[in-house]
Design goal:
sequence-specific DNA binding; elongated; 148 residues; DNA-binding; 20% strand; 36% helix; 2 domains; Dimeric_a/b-barrel; alpha+beta; Arc Repressor Mutant, subunit A
Length: 148
């Protein structure tokens, strides 16, 4: 699907606030609400928009410790490890990567000892390097091809 400037503007607005009405978006991009609705539907059908979601404040939910774990999975353990972590609410993102480690995971926990317990559980599947997140100066950045 070819994206014009209006589609990019719609995507930017929705990334900033997915609860905007089609009328509000239309006022920003110079289209009617039905025209915006049609464009959004096409963006969804093409798979460019995968879902509309909520951005949680983990600290307000009591999860004040974030960690990034680089993980090197033992031979033959990848599928069982991926299944294992997919069932853990503490693991909120996992990426397969190149380099010495094959996975990078983002975790949230309420207390440091919970992180220690998770690291101990992971040791059956491979070797890990853990970093505690001190702050996130760039987080949930809006992607817009038209911005310089």
């Amino acid at each position: 699907m070819e994206l014009d400037k209006i589609n990019w503007s719609i995507l930017t607005l929705l990334q900033e606030n997915a609860r905007l009405s089609f009328a509000e978006i239309g006022r920003n991009v110079g289209l009617s609400a039905p025209a915006v609705a049609e464009r959004v539907l096409k963006l969804e059908e093409s798979g460019i928009i995968k879902r509309f979601s909520v951005d949680l404040d983990f600290e307000k939910l009591g999860y004040s410790f974030k960690a990034i774990i680089s993980f090197k999975v033992y031979t033959g353990k990848m599928q069982s490890f991926l299944k294992f972590i997919s069932e853990m609410h503490e693991v909120y993102e996992c990426n397969r990567v190149t380099g010495e480690h094959c996975l990078i995971m983002k975790l949230i926990v309420q207390k440091p000892n919970e992180l220690e317990n998770i690291i101990n559980l992971f040791s059956d599947f491979g070797e890990s390097t853990t970093s505690i997140v001190l702050s996130s100066p760039v987080e949930h950045k809006v992607f817009n091809q038209n911005k310089n």
